Request: fold
Amino acid sequence: MGRVAGLAGVSVRTLHHYDEIGLVRPSARTAAGYRAYSAHDVERLREVLAYRRLGFGLREVAELVGDPSIDAVAHLRRLRGLIQERRDHAVVMVAAIDRELEARAKGLMVTPEAQLEMLGARLYDEIGGAYTATRHTEPRIAEQIWSALGDARTVLNVGAGTGSYEPADRHVTAVEPSKVMRRQRPRGSAPCVAAAAEDLPFEDHSFDAAMAVSTVHHWGDPIAGLREMRRVARRVVVLTFDTDEPGWQDRFWLTRDYLPEFVGVLAEFPSLAGMADAIGARAEPVPVPWDCADGLFEAYWRRPRAYLEDHVRRAMSVWTKVGPDAEQRAVRNLSDDLDSGRWAERNRALADLNAADLGLRLLVA
Ligand SMILES: C[S@@+](CC[C@H](N)C(=O)[O-])C[C@H]1O[C@@H](n2cnc3c(N)ncnc32)[C@H](O)[C@@H]1O
Reply:
């Protein structure tokens, strides 16, 4: 017990208490006859302590770990999702705090609404207001997605945002958790349900197809969300990003030369193979046209000056996630290299390309 307490960073008294209330009972015996933790007990203790650290009460933790339908892997996935959600919240709160500090330093008033808003904000409730400035339907990418939908008549669009890739000639239902994004959906667009991918409020096989575009990397638990899509639809189409390919960090000059922090943003993102496996999908590349109409992170690979524009960056979540220091440094260095001709020299080969494979992939199942 002492050794386990030391490894887990809790007191022996805590372990005694968990034993007394039946939460984690050391079920093995040492050679000398003392009670000890089996590998399974340690696994359970780890789950208990992780849920406790996330703020769950003892009764809630008992319910969570006592559910016999959930195995260790499912607990790890759930924990990972919860932790990632907290990280996103932390990013939003740090950004809001930075803004308030800056405003106070200039002697400006911060409204009570602004002070309170950061506490409940989701990432897209925070940054979504800047979305429609540059995020539009890119027709060539739309064509690829719509063709993958095959003959589907009813389509669920998960993480729908403002509805950029919703096909007009099919019966679409949208799912979008952020109220800021839902409010920006154009009048007359598909009905939109406030829900998250990981827990879709629909019966099994409710739709011919489910699609998700540029959203999976925002989900607390991508694999759970993909499985949900599989559950509710007979066909699944997902536009996502490949981090399996060796050297993927160097595919795009922006991350290679100016924003290495991008790697950290996707550090916990599942492998493309793992996501494909979860839904039985094949993957096809989605080239980004040189004049891509959707201002996604990779859109301006042949128009580098666009990244110097604040309104362009504000519609890309990456910049919020890496934080203002990395953003300012990247923009400054890019600006210097554009002015000195260094960028042009390094990226001469791009001038002749009309489309680039920058890791975007369409999973089709
Ligand atoms: C980059 S936007 C993409 C929107 C739209 N699919 C498009 O292509 O324009 C990402 C969207 O995912 C949504 N999102 C974040 N977490 C989600 C979750 N757990 N389930 C579903 N959508 C989520 C965000 O609110 C945001 O609207």
Observations:
- The chain has two domains: 2-66, 133-364.
- The chain has a mean pLDDT of 92.
- The two ends are 48 Å apart (CA to CA).
- Residues 72-105 form the longest helix (34 residues).
